[in-house]
Amino acid sequence: MTTTVVVERLVQLPANNCPFCLQENLVLTHNSSIEFCIHCLNCRADGPIKPTAEEALDAWNQAGLTQEKVIAEAVTAEVARVTS
Ligand SMILES: [Zn+2]
Prior knowledge:
Blueprint (H helix, E strand, L loop, with lengths): L4 E5 L16 E5 L5 E5 L12 H31 L1
Antiparallel strand pairs: 1-2, 2-3
The structure holds zinc ion (ZN).
Zinc ion binds next to loops.
C-alpha cells in the first residue's frame, strides 16, 4: 500500500509545467518509504521516483524536455511529409 503525502507546493521551485497537460498545478509528494516524486494535480501524472526532492525535480524537468523533443520531432516529420 502506498500512501502519498503532499509535503510541499512547488511555488518556489523551478519545475516545468506538466508535459502531459501543460498545467502548473504540481506538488512534491513522498510515499511511506520516503521517496520523492513530482505529481500533477490536474492530470494525476507522476514524475520519476527519486530518493531526494532535488533529484525528483530534475527528473521531472528532464521528462518535460524529452516530451517537448518528441513533439518537435513529430512536427518536423509531419512537415517533411506534407512538403515532400
Ligand atoms: Zn498534468
